[in-house]
Amino acid sequence: AAMSRKGVKLLVDSLTRSAKHFNKSEVECLVNLFDTLVARASSQFAGAGFDRTVFRDTLHSAFGMTDDVVLDRVFSTFDKGNSGCITVVEWVEGLAVLLRGTLEEKMKYCFAVYDLNGDGYISREEMFQMLKNSLLIQPADEEPDEGIKDLVEIALKKMASTYLLVPFLLQDYDHDGKLSFEDFEQAVREENLLLEAFGPCLPDIK
Fold it and tell me: Do 15 and 81 sit in the same domain of this protein?
């Protein structure tokens, strides 16, 4: 349903405060874009938001994101209400982190993308699944899965070599190669390049 001019102003003011990283005119543009995307979406959400397909198409065209697994996970991190659609608040606040988030915000976002089952850990299996989907495998590779398994072990060892992670790996029998957010955070603070260790889930600077 069309929102009154006063309603739009109140919404923009509220989102400018909550999204933090966008100014008022930027929020207005994102709200207008949201309305355009809702018009493209299926009618099942009664104008409240847009669906997974529209979201994926938008991220693909705007940021060149093509990995289906990553796009599904990004959708889930935006869809905080778990409603199956992206509301205007989820849209603006999600983009604020995706495009201009602090390192802390981006670490939480990337961890949520990689934590496929939402249990608070990134397991070996989840690392394998993310890397398998994001890496380009040559047809000539005889055992591509073995190479990915090796990469998972390298990533675990790299993260385990940073402060406080050695005890974590020594207890690997209990944790079965799982990384908690604290493990991931410490590793990324030591080496920022590990932020997207298990697949590209942020737009590049361009």
Answer: yes
Q: State CA 80 to chain mean position distance.
A: 12
Query: Residues with Cβ < 8 Å from 104, sequence gap 6 or more?
Result: none
> Which of 46, 75, 101 delimits the end of a domain?
101
The contacts found for 157-165 with CB under 8 angstroms, 24 or more apart, are 158/187, 158/191, 158/194, 158/197, 159/183, 159/184, 159/187, 159/194, 159/197, 162/186, 162/187, 162/190, 162/191, 163/190
Predicted TM-score (pTM) of this structure: 0.80
Residues 6+ apart with CB under 8 A from 56: 68, 71, 72, 75
- Helices 181-190, 144-160: inter-axial angle, 10-degree rounding: 80
* 3 state SS of 70: helix
Quick one: pLDDT at residue 134?
Answer: 63
| pLDDT for the residue 141 | 54
Is 204 among the domain residues?
A: no
| DSSP string computed for 111-161 | HHHH-TT-SSEE-HHHHHHHHHHHS---TT-S-HHHHHHHHHHHHHHHHHT
Q: What is the mean pLDDT of each run of 10 residues along the chain (206 residues)?
A: 75 91 95 89 74 92 87 94 92 95 96 94 87 63 68 69 40 57 90 87 82
The tokens for 65 are: 């994101």
Q: Structural domain of residue 83, as residue ranges? A: 5-101
- CA–CA separation, 130 vs 78, rounded Å? 19
